[in-house]
Model the fold of this input.
Amino acid sequence: MSELHQRPPGFLYNSGRKTRELLCERVPLAQLAKRFGTPLYVYSAGMVRERVKAFQQAFAAQDHAICYSVKANSNLSILKLLASLGCGFDVVSGGELQRVARVGRSATKTVVFSGVGKTVAEMEAALKAGILLFNLESASELDSIARTAGRLKKNARVAMRVNPDVPADTHPYISTGLHKHKFGVPIGQARELYEKIATAKYLQAAGVSVHIGSQIRDFSSFNAAMERVAELVRQLRQAGHDIRYVDAGGGMGINYRDGSDDFASLAAEYAAAVTGPLRGLGLQLLLEPGRAIVGPAGVLLTRVVYRKTNGDKKFVIVDAAMNDLIRPSLYQAQHQIVPVSSTSAGAETVDVVGPICESGDFFARDRQLPVTAEGDLLAILDAGAYGMVLASNYNTRPRPAEILVSGKSAKVIRKRETTTDLMRGER
Ligand code: LLP
Done:
């Protein structure tokens, strides 16, 4: 199998004589499917470690902290792994904050809290937890945190999330840096808001934050956004605000097509784009990567249930569905799909679809794939980010189990749901 179909070092084929078997680190995926059933999310701890280290290395010349974006994959074991590597966290809800609190006593001190609709209850929880930074997205939200912090008599470090009006080449649903999007405050209005922060007794204007979108492969957009942010930092400092942090958000894209990317050198390019404009400002840079860290470190394992032909269309029906991984249906994402056991059988053009009662339930359309038989296992690659977190129970389908592999060991980090779980709370 070509490099297109492997995700080193986490997911590689072994070199058997007749058939080749896809492994997660040293564990054959077929073995995991047999033990834990399908559909099944499988993550490589080694790959997460390697990517975090490469990311840290890329930013070594700049004072920085990685605040991993919890929304990408919020499993507690994944969060614990990231904390052990020195990561902080970016959260967008009270629920995510509670997850981080479960990771360790001091983990909430490393949290940045983003999102356009933080409720008073969420702000209270974050104030009590003493998080690192609130990223505020509107004048109303600023009023709300000023009132809440005053009532609790708790200090809060805050940053305005500015909307730099910079386009990013990505899917429209995950582009966030233009004025037509709901995110941030127009960068031109930021200065007035910092004046307002300065009058609030318990607020401290500590940073400026920005996030222009996700799955961005053209790093010049990050550079353009950071130029604007750097300019704002200079103006704010001149106006007397003690700006110590710049939060550059997340958004570094991955290559869904091909696993031969050299992540270390891409991360270095990304780092150059982000840090260039900040040179000489003596800031601490906060980074909120999600997908770039965990995306390629996970696969969704699924089994072929049936094959069928309708006219001239061939369908491969698998036991995973859009409720398990919605990215192809929602963002037209093209995840590579590879056989777990590969022979030299020929190729065919097929649609890979799930059992859900919607034509939107597909993983691939008119895709050239190696011929598969009923009962075969397939791996849907790059499913470590925005996979399980976006899974639902549509069609009363229990969500998959999650497995974390490290070397030869494989641990269940989330049990498969049962239909009893699903009906709990109903009457
Ligand atoms: N920071 C903020 C404020 C964000 O809104 C996001 C993602 C991130 C960081 C992390 O971005 P990343 O490094 O993962 O690109 N469900 C979509 C992606 C939604 C991204 C939302 N915000 C998908 O499956 O493509």
